[in-house]
Amino acid sequence: MVTLINVLIISLSFAQSDVKENTAANVEQTENPNESPAPFDEAPKIGGLEMFARKIVGSGLVDIFIQGGFVMWPILLLVIWALATIIWKLVSLNYAKINLADFLDKIQPLLEEKRYEEAIEVCENTRGPVASIIHAGLLKTDKGVEAVEKSIESAGVVEMAFLEKGFIPISTTINLAPMFGFFGTVVGMIGAFDAISKAGEVEPTIVASGIKVALITTAAGLAVAIPVQFFNNIFLSMVDGIVIDMQRGSEKVVETLVENK
Question: Are residues 75 and 181 in the same domain?
Answer without folding.
Answer: yes
